[in-house]
TrEMBL record:
Residues 5-43 form the Ribbon-helix-helix protein CopG domain. This is Ribbon-helix-helix protein CopG domain-containing protein. GO terms for biological process: regulation of DNA-templated transcription. InterPro entries: CopG. Pfam families: RHH_1 (PF01402).
Amino acid sequence: MVDEVRITVRIPRELAKGVEKVQAARGLTPSIILRNALTLYLATIDGSTETERRRQFSSEYLFLGIDLLIQRQFPDAHQALMAEADRRVEALYAAS
């Protein structure tokens, strides 16, 4: 027996219509559709989906590559760029 909990939720009519479309097209129950959607949503906000991990890796790789190029080709500008990046991050997080 699967350990499950019943949760009652209200959703906008447009979402319900979307669930009905998927149900008709794929032959899935509303429970399966909503369970899959919630699983994907929670994995996405956790950053643990394959797509999100790939995006994070690509971003980090690009940032590191650009940093290395700037360090080697424009060493005088590197510290100024780092200071400006730090200032912008601080301003962004102070605003939120």
